Structure formats: structure tokens, C-alpha cells
Amino acid sequence: MLNVKYKLREPKSKRLTSITLFFYYDNKRFVASTRRKIHPKDWDFNRERPKRSYPAYSSLTAYLDRLQIAINDRYNNLVAFGQYPTNEDFKDAILNASGKLNAERPTLIDRLKEEAQKEAGIKKMNNRLLTLVRQFSKQNRKPTNIEAINGQWYIDFQTWLIANKSESYAYRMAKQLRTVVRRTNFDWSGKNEVLNSKLKAKEAYSEKISLSFDDLAHLKQSIPSLSEEQARTAKILYLACVTGLRRSDWHKLTLDGNIIDVEGWRFAKVVMQKTSKLSGIKVAYPPLLDITKRYLTELDGGFAWQSKFNIQAKEMGQAAGFDRPVRLMSSRKGETVENEYQMFEQFTSKIGRNSFTSNFRALGIPDNLLNVMTGHTGKKSMADVYDTRKFEQIAVQIIPYLQRFDEELSGGSYLSEHEMRFV
Q1: pLDDT, tens digit (0-9, with 9 covering 90-100), for 72-81
Q2: What is the DSSP string of 37-74?
Q3: Phi/psi at 420 (nearest 5 deg)?
Q4: Is the pTM of this model over 0.70?
């Protein structure tokens, strides 16, 4: 009996790596790919099988066992008839074994579990989606194996969501499911059908507030009167308003970050969290003013991830006196209504990016230049006509607007404090 062993091609990799098999026969060594990949953290190196915690443990283990049996069967049959096996014989055995087994690919539920384990920030969302997929499958007797997930399955899932949940919730969950399908690291016949399907539900629309230059001045002036925790929240919100970063990228803005200096003006180069194989790597170039360095220093070198930031932002906004009434329009199921709130009730992490873009647009900056700083690309925004690989050339066109932005914020204090530099 041949001693078939399995190993990872790159056992120290931080991403998915191929599972390879090898064995010796007649003083020869045979090595081949199993055509399967796994993350090293999910691999049991002693047993040479996936860990039991791996979502597709049963199916992948069965697949590897099947390959081992097929190889030995082919070897024993050839030897029994006095023939010498070759590498081509073993390759043929592996191909036949691969074609006979359909359980090696995880179900959509396995995929959702895997996504939920990746990052704590998306765990809550994916667990909700996982529950919905199970409910839909059980109530409608719909399979969840990957090969069954196609355009019609996705339409039926959306129809079920709209019938059982609110339209805005159905929109978010259907969109999240499409994201999970896009992130799969293998293809199947119905994958593109799902990706190309339209969302049936409509997104609920709601106006968002933004902080004007006067509001930002008031926020900065109120910091000394706030409690320590509220002052910290105020500084983080202020930094979000003057850098335009998404909350998912806050932690990447640090004192030792990748800084680009153009004519004495500083920009950070931030690879954004929301990237994909389809859209490519997205890079934002947030501007760094003196206030950025000062607040980052006071925040111990970088943004802090606060799990209850939106709650803390509202408490801080109330304490800072942002209690004036604001009227916002919202739309649900085609009906538009106007509601009145106190301003602090609308304080969330999103108003940082909203304030950044609205204040720059008030200064007349073209969208394609604003897109470079915020990392916006794609159909939802104006096409970026500049080559972002040559950011220094683009920055020269941004600087006049950035200078006016800084003057509105601080009355022209840029580089006034002993030529401060962001290092």
C-alpha cells in the first residue's frame, strides 16, 4: 500500500494555499495538486487533514480520503497484472476521483460560516445572513450546495426576503449575499448569474447630516469642557471630518504611516478595507493637516476602534451643545417623509466622511480630484481621469483647494507651529 501524504504548498502563508499530495513508488517520487486550497490556520499538520473546526471539514476530508483510495487501487490493479505504473496512471486516477465526487465544494452555508469567522466586524452581519439562508432553504425546500446557487435561486431568495422582512432589510441582506458569492475563491456555472442579477428591493433613503466649517470650529472649541471619554470621541470625529476616511480604515492612519509630501503638504497613502478582486485595490490619499498630527499624538498615535462609537458620538454631541433642530427627508417603500431631530441624535461615524466631501464640494473642488482623496472609483462616482499611480502630479491640483480647506478650518495655521511635519 502506498503511503500517500498531504502537505500545503505554502504552510506559512497568510492566505489560501494549495493542498498537494506526494508518495514514493519504485524509487520514484510522485507529486500532484489536489486542486483544493485551504488556509494554513485551518490545516492539521499532524493528521494531514483539515481541522474539525473547518466549515467544510467533512466534505474535504472525504475528498482527500477518496484520492488516497483511488491512487492505491490504481497501483494495486496495475501491479497485479504485472504492469509498471507511471505518473500518467496516477494523474488519471486523481482526475477520475475528482470527477466522481461532488461533495468537495462547500455549501453556501459553509461559505457564510467561513466569512463570519474571518473578521469580528462582519460576524454579526454574516450570522444574520446565515440564519436567513437556512430559513429560506427550509421553508422553500431550496438546496444550498454551491452548484444550485444561480440567478433564479437568488431571485427566489430576494422574493422571500421582501415577503417576510422590511424592504430596506431585504435590500441589505440581498446585497450582502451577493458580496459573499463574489468573494468565493472558485467558480461555478451560476456564480456570474448571481453577480449580474439586479436587486429587487429598493434601498431606504435617508438624508444625512454633515458638519460645516462653523460646526467643526464649535466641536474643537468644546473639547476642553468635555469629559475625558467624550473629548476622545470628539477628536476621533474631528479627524474623520478632516481626513474623509471610512470607519473601517481609521486604524490605518497612524503617526508612522506611509506619508507623501508634495510642496510641503502631506497626504497619507491608505489601502482601503473595501476592496475586491473585481474592483481591484482601492487607495485613498487623505490630507494631513497640523490638527491631524496633534490629535493623533493625543490619541496615542492613531485612531482607536470604538465598538460603541455611534452611541458615544451622540452623547458627546449632546454634551457639546449640538442640540439645534434639523429636518431630514427619508424615503421608504416609495413614500417620502420629513422628520425633525436634534442634531446630536444624528451623530454617527458616517458624518465624518459626509462632512469631508460636502465641505470640499462647497469650495468647488472637481469630483475627480475629490475621488482621489476619498478613494472613490466605479460607476457610482465620476470616472477618475487621473492616473493615481502618479499621485504627486495630482496633488499639485488638489493643494489649492486643500489650502482653502485649511484656512476655513483654522484661519491659515498650516505649518505655523515651528514647521511641524507628519513623520
Answers
A1: 888 888 887 7
A2: EE-GGGEETTTTEE-TTSTTHHHHHHHHHHHHHHHHHH
A3: -60, 145
A4: no
